[in-house]
Amino acid sequence: MLKISFAPDSLPTQNTLVLTVASKGALGEQGKKLDKKTGGVLSRAMKAGAFDGAKEKILSVLCPAKTNLSKVLLVGIGDPAEADAPLFACIGGAIFAALGKDAQATVLIDKFADLGITEAEATAHTAFGARLRSYGFDKYHTKQNAEDKPHLKSLALACKDPAAAKTLFAPLDKVADGIMFARDLVSEPANVLYPETLAQHAFALTALGVKVDILDEDQMKKLGMGALLGVAQGSVNPPRLVSMQWMGDKNPKNKAPVAFVGKGVTFDSGGISLKPGSGMEKMKYDMAGAAAVIGAIKALASRKAKANVVGVVALVENMPSGMAQRPGDVVVSASKQTIEVVNTDAEGRLVLADALWYAQETFNPSCVIDLATLTGAISVALGHEYAGLFSNNDTLCDQLSKAGKNVSEPLWRFPMGEAYDKMIDSPIADMKNMGDGRGAGSIAAAQFLQRFVKKNAPWAHIDIAGMAWLDKDVSYCPKGASAFGVRLLDRFISDNYEAE
Ligand code: BES
Ligand code: MN
Ligand code: ZN
Q1: Residue 78, SS3?
Q2: If you measure from the C-alpha of residue 178 to the centroid of ligand 3, how many angstroms do you get, rounded to a whole number?
Q3: Which residue has a Cα nearest atom 22 of ligand 1?
């Protein structure tokens, strides 16, 4: 694990120094000092390397004259007045990635007169981003390739007020714990991580003061969860429904919790409506919504958030077999509404229908937010830049969009309405589990979910199918499981439920 420490902003004399530079190559207070000491090496290197201090750009200056430093990495922050916390998290990630084979380094967040946030904030978020980028999942490599191994062992961050930076970093470090936990869960293969073992991982949150309840198949049968159980019946791995309550708000007036609901399909083969073989291995990440919810609850409990939050995750495996449900089957959901299963690969919404109903019936929440890798269509619309947002409530949308923007987990809202809702009417049951397949697939899925939301209950659905797994590195996350949603949900709670 990357060791992170905070130090006063005196210039280090050896090893690697990372120094922030503003746009047009403007050096800060310490940068100017070092430039002078080296006889202008930094200025000349920036000119020679056409380095202009643009956001996240990096220039490496080796063995600068008149110092014992082995390397100075200049890292651009762009216009200091516009530099904000999410940018520094990205800069932290870019720094980690650029440090190559260095075992240890000191990052100096330099002083600029017009920096948009305090140096302490910038420092804390830089550390956060570096930690997020340092993630790796290599437990199944028996022969470690030294080239691939994350290199940097310890990172010191220097600024004017290291004590303040350390204090600001503490809760971010807890959020990072939640993110790492979620990434690990998503990365695990489906033969290791199936409903029972995923439920066990959620149960471990008990140690943080979270009340965890696990429903088994019989209990779900008693509650009439025919939609969830229909998906589960084709697999030898029995389903689980897990709830995690974090009641951190000690004010007795604010009782009703916020509910997070996550899709936890530990493997989605498509069922009898079998998916094509190519790329099917990726469907181990079809539990990323559940992982994000578990990770968010871990983050909130770890940093002792002053809010009441409950996470509900529906855990099933979607498999074809002689026991599997067939296209055309009609199931009865816990809400008593009937569903014609026209496609067994549209299983996420079936599972969520019962989980949403259960969350509302059991916890009477003030609002419900579900996260799911629900539709391939969402990446047709948005690619891998935004998650889709669907909701019956403008205020909730604004709160979520704002939180997302502030943590580099952006959301884009889609329309909903009666005309779309009609798409899922069925001739034989109250509804069918997909539209005609000729468009608006992500909206049809959201309309389906909304039929399981109680009248006037504020609800939002976030389709993370395009965001849960990265095919290439981004600054704050190496390729693979992203744990998209953990930062978002944590920030949504701190912005809207923890204010004095
Ligand atoms: N888990 C998939 C959606 C998905 C696709 C997630 C790609 C991540 C990457 C979901 O269960 C699914 O199969 N959806 C179908 C719905 C269709 C049958 C209406 C889809 O998107 O094709
Ligand atoms: Mn599916
Ligand atoms: Zn699925």
Answers
A1: coil
A2: 23
A3: 376
- For the record, the structure tokens of 122 come out as 């910038």
Distance 73 CA to ligand 3 centre (A): 43
The secondary structure element, H or E, covering residue 368 is strand 367-372
Angle formed by the axes of helices 486-497 and 394-406, to 10°?
120
Q: Is the pTM here over 0.90, yes or no?
A: yes
The rounded Å distance from CA 373 to ligand 3 centre is: 6
Burial track 8-27 (b if 16+ CB lie within 10 A, e otherwise): ebebbeeebbbbbbbbebbb
Closest atom of ligand 1 relative to the 441 alpha carbon? 19
Given this model, what pLDDT does residue 499 score? 76
**Structural domains of the chain, with CATH:** 3-161 (3.40.220.10), 175-496 (3.40.630.10)
Q: How confident is the model at residue 255 (pLDDT cuts 50, 70, 90)?
A: confident
Cβ(377) – ligand 1 distance below 6 Å = yes
Residue 101 pLDDT: 84
Of 145 and 477, more confident? 477
Q: Is the pLDDT of residue 145 over 70?
A: no
Bridging pattern class, strands 258-268 and 367-372:
parallel
- Asked whether 434 lines ligand 1 (CB < 6 A), one says yes
Catalytic machinery residues: 275, 349
Ligand 1 pocket member 373 (CB < 6 A): yes
pLDDT at 11 over 90: no
Measured distance CA(34)–CA(42) in Å, rounded: 8
Q: Locate the ligand 1 atom nearest the alpha carbon of residue 433 and give its number.
A: 19
- According to DSSP H, which parts of 386-482 are helical? 394-406, 418-422, 441-450
Is residue 105 within 8 A of residue 99, CB to CB? The reply is yes
In the prediction, which pLDDT does 12 show?
A: 82
Looking at per-residue pLDDT, the higher value among 425 and 252 belongs to 425
The answer, yes or no, to whether any atom of ligand 1 lies below 6 A from the CB of 268, is yes
Q: Name the nearest CA neighbour of 21 among 47, 50, 56, 48.
A: 56
Q: Give tens-digit pLDDT for 212-225.
A: 999 999 999 999 99
Question: Residue by residue, what is the 3-state secondary structure of 140-166?
Answer: CCCCCCCCCCCCCCEEEEECCCHHHHH
Helix (H) or strand (E) holding 6: strand 3-7
User: Taking the alpha carbons of 232, 237, 239, 242 in that order, is the dihedral positive or negative?
Assistant: negative
Bridge partners (DSSP) of residue 309 are: 246, 258
Whether 150 shows a pLDDT value over 70: the answer reads: no
The amino acid present at 196, given as its one-letter code, is: E
Length of the chain: 500
**Which atom of ligand 1 lies at the shortest distance from residue 435's CA?**
19
pLDDT digits (tens, 9 = 90+) for 289-343: 999 999 999 999 999 999 999 999 999 999 999 999 999 999 999 999 999 999 9
188 lines ligand 1 (CB under 6 A): no
CA 408 to CA 118: how far, in whole Å?
Answer: 19
